Inverse folding.
């Protein structure tokens, strides 16, 4: 199942993210793709808000430190593979994040040669220069179809 | 007093011996030092697995370079956060084992506070209170610091750290990695007011945001299509100026707001020449004294700053127990 949305501002992107965050559960895996400046971190700020991460915790880009962790309804693991190559990614021990007690959100997931979870929610962001807007495509893999449907019904 | 410091919060594995919080006897950093590693060469520490392999010989090297026996060390200091969980754990567990085996105190140190302390390793006469700005690939934070132990948080980045903005900016301009030094170099030939890149307005005036700037650069480059060699310095300089401007303005504002006369800058981006120049210039105008580490090795991640700050923590009785745990999210 695929869902396509348009966002005209960063606050709209955050609101869409918040609605996604609200329907997530322990153990869920999300992958984000999109170019630099497409709005991935903004989207994750919204998702974190939906997961109950309060505003005192700064949801920031983990490009350099590779991972941030926030406390919401569940732990939220925010990973970013931007500066790693395939071999380095393969060497990372991320099982703890992926199969842990929280929600795992991975920026630049397309850089993973083998995505370690079979079922995940794919969010792609594209900048549309003519409209100065973002196209958000949400694609459910496996069990996430149901989750995406409940999200689509609420939007 | 001799303190052995250990730092493994991110990519680097570093060990250092510092005397009385000020004299660096050795400061070994894996990616920067020529070390005769058992497996040869210098290894980038991206996975904690690799750090686990290096920690032993990095500590050994720090002792050998200092020509000091392990039993002459008075305390062990270690970064316990913030950083990458797996990487921090290597340092913390290694330090705990050493502290236990040698029956000497263990001191858990905050990585961000230590970045500011790096300045005291070059000049021990800096006056408190001060405004501390930590700028690196992972951090952009402002603090009001009353003494070595008391830090009040003023603000930090809401999205990208400024070092990350440099790296991603360089990527957009196809200049390679790491982006900070190359943008710094190219900008010297450019006009810093050629292009008006945006400065983010924040609810908390001491918070930063660089993600809008990155997007704006990306749009600019897309619109232009092909960037000629001739216009590149102007773009780089204008982009760098937007970062420098935000950092300097907010830091000066913080000094004014907190009525302090001293500013300290730490972290890898503190090596940027435009930020140094602009901060100095504005500080002079406002009768403020500003400090940057002079050695690049004290700007980037290193264990000397950990061992240095630990001395003052020890003096105030701030030691840790063997239950010390890595805190990836530690703030201040």
């Amino acid at each position: 199942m695929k869902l396509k949305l348009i966002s005209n501002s960063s606050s709209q992107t955050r609101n869409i993210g918040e609605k996604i965050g609200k329907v997530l559960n322990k153990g869920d895996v999300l992958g984000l793709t999109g170019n630099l400046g497409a709005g991935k971190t903004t989207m994750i700020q919204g998702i974190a808000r939906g997961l109950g991460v309060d505003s005192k915790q700064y949801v920031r880009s983990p490009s350099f430190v590779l991972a941030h962790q926030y406390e919401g309804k569940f732990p939220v693991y925010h990973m970013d593979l931007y500066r790693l190559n395939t071999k380095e990614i393969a060497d990372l021990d991320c099982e703890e994040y992926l199969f842990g007690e929280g929600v795992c959100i991975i920026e630049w997931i397309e850089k993973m040669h083998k995505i370690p979870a079979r079922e995940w929610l794919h969010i792609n962001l594209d900048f549309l220069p003519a409209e100065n807007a973002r196209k958000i495509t949400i694609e459910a893999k496996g069990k996430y179809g149901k989750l995406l449907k409940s999200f689509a019904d609420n939007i | 007093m001799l303190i052995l410091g250990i730092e493994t919060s991110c990519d680097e594995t570093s060990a250092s011996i510092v005397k009385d919080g000020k004299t660096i006897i050795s400061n070994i950093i894996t990616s920067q030092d020529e070390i005769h590693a058992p497996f040869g060469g210098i290894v980038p520490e991206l996975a904690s697995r690799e750090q686990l392999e290096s920690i032993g010989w990095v500590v050994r090297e720090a002792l050998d370079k200092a020509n000091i026996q392990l039993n002459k060390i008075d305390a062990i200091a270690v970064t316990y956060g913030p950083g990458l969980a797996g990487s921090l754990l290597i340092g913390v567990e290694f330090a705990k084992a050493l502290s236990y085996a040698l029956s000497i105190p263990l001191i858990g140190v905050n990585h961000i506070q230590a970045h500011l302390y790096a300045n005291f390793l070059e000049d021990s006469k800096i006056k408190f209170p001060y405004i501390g700005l930590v700028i690196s690939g992972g951090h952009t934070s402002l603090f009001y610091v009353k003494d070595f132990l008391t830090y009040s948080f003023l603000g930090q980045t809401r999205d990208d750290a400024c070092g990350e903005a440099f790296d991603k900016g360089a990527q957009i301009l196809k200049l390679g990695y790491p982006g900070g030094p190359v943008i710094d170099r190219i900008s010297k030939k450019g006009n810093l007011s050629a292009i008006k890149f945006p400065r983010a307005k924040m609810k908390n005036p001491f918070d930063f945001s660089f993600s809008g700037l990155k997007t704006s650069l990306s749009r600019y480059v897309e619109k232009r299509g092909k960037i000629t060699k001739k216009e590149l310095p102007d773009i780089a300089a204008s982009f760098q100026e937007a970062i420098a401007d935000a950092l300097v303005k907010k830091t000066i504002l913080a000094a004014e707001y907190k009525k302090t006369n001293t500013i300290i800058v730490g972290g890898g981006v503190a090596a940027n020449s435009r930020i140094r120049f602009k901060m100095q210039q504005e500080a002079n105008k406002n009768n403020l004294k500003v400090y940057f580490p002079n050695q690049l090795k004290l700007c980037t991640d290193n264990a000397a700053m950990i061992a240095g700050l630990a001395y003052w923590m020890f003096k105030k009785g701030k030691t840790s127990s063997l239950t010390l745990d890595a805190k990836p999210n530690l703030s201040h």
